[in-house]
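Question: Send over one sample?
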Amino acid sequence: MKFWRRYWYYIGGILFVFMAFFMGLWGSAHLQRIQVILVFSWMGMLMHQFEEYALPGGFPSNSNFVQMDEK
């Protein structure tokens, strides 16, 4: 459980890569339009979380310093 808690955003980034290949090679042509929109929306959320927490990162510390006024 520690591994999942520490690296969940990296796992989401890897899942994004697999889903991108799946949607590019097979998924977009075989799924309904609403399903394609939902999958791409979820992929966008995965990528957003990865870039907020992993690369370039900095969201947790910026959130504490700016929004919560902690120093």
Observations:
- Helices lie at 2-30, 33-53, 59-67.
